[in-house]
Amino acid sequence: MIEVQNIHKSFGENNVLNGIDATFKAGKNNLIIGGSGSGKTTLLKCIVGLHEPTEGKVFYDGHNFTEMHFSDRVHIRKEIGMLFQNSALFDSMTVEQNIMFPLNLFTEMSHDEKLDRANFCLTRVNLEGKNKLFPSELSGGMKKRVGIARAISMQPKYLFVDEPNSGLDPLTSILIDELISELTEEYGTTTVIVTHDMNSVMGIGDHVIFLHNGEKWWEGTNKEIAHTNNKELNNFVFASKFMKAAREKL
C-alpha cells in the first residue's frame, strides 16, 4: 500500500498540486485521471521520488519515503518498477539488454540468472524470441510490452505506469491494459497508472482518483463513475468519450 498525505508541489510561482491525500491499494489497479495540466504525472513523480514534494509525505507500507535520505531510499527503489510514457528504452541496447539493465544495477545475479529472468519476462509479455531485436525494430505496442517486461524484471512490489496507451491503436491499448491488470493480480502488486483513456478507466479501474486543478476532486471505483453527480468528473468522462468517438469516425 502507498499513502500520500497533503502533497503540494510548486514550480516557482506555479502551484501544480494542492494538498493531495490518497491511498493506493495493494493488488489493485489504482488509476490517476484528469485533464491536461491537472497534476497527474507530477503526482506520480512525487510518489516515486523524481520530484520532491514542496510539502507533504509519501509512505510505502508505513515507511516515510519523503523523509528518507537518498541512500536510504534504495531498498524501496529496488521494489519499484516503472513504465514511462514513451517506454524509455535504450536505443543502443537490444531487448534482452534493456530488460537486464535494472538487474545489472540492483542485483548480484550471474549472467545466466539474469538471462533466465529476461526470458521469463519476455514470455510473460508474449515476446518470446525477440531478445536480439533493437527498439527501432519494434512496433509501438511491442515497445510498451518490452517496457513492461523491464518494469517487472525485479519482481516489483510497486508498479508505476505513465500513459500506457499513448500512441497505440484501440486493440493494442486493450491488450496492454489486460496485461497490466493480469500482472497486478498475479503478483499482488500496488499498481498506479496515470491515464486519460476512459476505456482503461472503465476496463481496469479498480480504484480511481480524479484530479482537477491540482486537487483531488473525486475518488471511487470505475463502477461508481457512472452514478456520480460530480460535474467536473462528468465533463471529463463524457468529453473523453465524445472525442474518442469523433476521432474513430474520421
What topology emerges from the helices and strands here?
Blueprint (H helix, E strand, L loop, with lengths): L1 E10 L2 E11 L4 E5 L6 H9 L6 E6 L2 E2 L9 H4 L2 E4 L11 H12 L4 H14 L15 H13 L5 E5 L7 H18 L2 E5 L3 H7 L2 E6 L2 E6 L1 H4 L5 H19 L1
Parallel strand pairs: 3-8, 3-9, 6-7, 7-8
Antiparallel strand pairs: 1-2, 1-4, 4-5, 9-10
Helix pairs in contact: 3-4, 3-5, 4-5, 5-6, 6-7
Keywords:
Rossmann fold; 40% helix; alpha/beta; 250 residues; six-stranded mixed beta sheet; 24% strand; 10 strands
Offer a concise description of the structure.
The chain has 9 helices and 10 strands. The protein has 250 residues and is an alpha/beta fold. The chain has a domain at 1-79 and 190-250: P-loop containing nucleotide triphosphate hydrolases (Rossmann fold).
